[in-house]
Design brief:
The structure is a single chain. The protein has 248 residues and is an all-alpha fold. The protein contains ten helices and two strands; from the N terminus they run αααααααβααβα. 36% of the residues are buried.
């Protein structure tokens, strides 16, 4: 049996936390499943599809989040890896598989924000987004830089859908890779997060205040062992090596 080697302790712990991470990310999208239901879907995927047929979309969200987080941890565990905008697109491709139009590519449609007057800019110049993302990732970035990118991904709405999920998973990829922490938003805090996010969208609070809000309330530096028993062994997705080759 091969024992997986981890670049740092936080990545090792995160492997055991994946079900909770998927559950909390799905709750941000109002997926109706409880934690035990999410754990069952996580472990059995489409075997339980008939049982939860009232929300096939919710099943897809959970399954895609599971696969995205597995890919995320594989990326985070690479040594001396240079992240760039293609990694963000890679995570979105998995997040949006089968449920988001044009997944894995920058937005090409005008979108609106539910419960907000904010209108994201029309994506006329995607190269500007690429340069903006790479300008952060090619430097010696810190936690504020990562949370700034997290905020930008959601406010700019880089994708046709799935922006909050993609922003969260990718930000956690970066944070874990340098052992800087993990964005952990309990389901009891989802409503507060969404209200604050709308305030940020509508310029009622600054980007820096939003970043400080996330950093002060939702960054953890270790994982509670309560949920470790729910962890599953992580296997690399088939597309992982293909993704690495595409960056060369």
């Amino acid at each position: 049996m091969t024992i997986k080697k981890y670049k740092n302790e936080l990545i090792r712990q995160a492997h055991d936390w994946l079900i909770m991470a998927v559950y909390e990310a799905a709750k941000i999208e109002h997926v109706p499943f409880t934690f035990p239901e999410t754990a069952e879907i996580y472990k059995n995927e489409y075997v339980v599809a008939n049982k939860y047929k009232h929300s096939s979309y919710g099943i897809d969200v959970i399954v895609n989040l599971k696969r995205a987080y597995k890919a995320s941890l594989d990326l985070a565990n690479l040594k001396n890896y240079q992240f760039d905008y293609k990694d963000l697109l890679y995570i979105h491709r998995i997040i949006g598989e089968g449920i988001v139009y044009n997944n894995g590519n920058f937005r090409n449609l005008q979108v609106t924000i539910k419960n907000s007057t904010y209108k994201p800019p029309f994506p006329t110049f995607p190269d500007v987004w690429k340069e903006r993302i790479n300008s952060i990732l090619t430097q010696s970035w810190n936690i504020d830089d990562v949370l700034g990118l997290y905020a930008d991904t959601m406010k700019q709405q880089y994708f046709n859908d799935g922006n909050k999920r993609t922003a969260l998973v990718f930000a956690n990829t970066l944070l874990l890779s340098k052992e800087l922490g993990f964005i952990n938003i309990p389901d009891t805090q989802t409503a507060k997060l969404l209200v604050t996010l709308v305030e940020f969208y509508e310029n009622k609070i600054s980007k820096q205040k939003f970043v400080s809000f996330i950093k002060d309330k939702y960054i953890i530096h270790s994982f509670e062992p309560t949920y470790h028993k729910n962890g599953l062994k992580v296997n690399k997705p088939e597309t992982f090596k293909e993704h690495l080759k595409s960056k060369k």
